[in-house]
């Protein structure tokens, strides 16, 4: 707006000065100088036209600048609306993060959260008959879930109650000393929990030779492999495998494929048994058809014999009917 004002002043000031000079000359000119008066009138007319043109351009420029200012203000308002919506989303996300932190800080709520997550994944990836929830093993231990795989490898038990207190203390430790203490505590918790799962969740003859520990956090899974890779490998040698939501998703996909193969093999075996039964029925039908054919041939032979006997009887009857019975002489009858 300041640039427009300076431009207007730069245009109008020379015009005003020229107009003032012309009026002074007109006031002090001799009365008889008509030609000078005409020139001054023409100059005044041109100055009026120039001033009108400048005023028209000034109006157009002001209108264009006002339109651009309105468009800029509209875009600013739109961006402010987007920023306000993003701020609302950040506040909502912050509330959700705080809620999640409170949830993970409560041991019972954290356990329920892990169980719900595990159950949803099992229900989504496996058929209903392929797994059991809160299954009790023969040793009296109740596992969170049991995946019913055929032998081998056999049913696999899953635990979802991994202790997270030491890991949370490790992530929030303010100094190296507390961080080292939390790391040692985490190693102790891992070793104790793996020992507990290996002794209770692996039952020879009832389950597979291994079990799964479900970790409800990808960050926890990554930290355990990064900080305590040796303990994770030791747990695997004992048949206890730590899985995150991502790795469990892949494992359940492989288990579902195995269940599908087992079901297909069972259906193929049932189909082979039905085909064998059908083959037996076909052999039985062939024997019965052969017997029927033999009986039919014997019946046909009997019918031919009956027809031959009938023809003989008819022929004899015809000959008998053709014989003429004549009276014999008396002497012949006496002789006879």
UniProtKB/TrEMBL annotation:
Entry keyword Transferase: no
Entry-linked InterPro entries: DNA_recombination_RmuC
Keyword S-adenosyl-L-methionine recorded: no
Segments traversing the membrane: 6-28
Alphabetical UniProt keywords: Coiled coil, DNA recombination, Membrane, Transmembrane, Transmembrane helix
Top-level taxon in the UniProt lineage: Bacteria
A Pfam family of this chain: RmuC
Residues forming coiled coils: 261-295
Function: Involved in DNA recombination.
Sequence similarity: Belongs to the RmuC family.
UniProt-recorded name of the protein: DNA recombination protein RmuC homolog
Lineage: Bacteria, Pseudomonadati, Pseudomonadota, Alphaproteobacteria, Acetobacterales
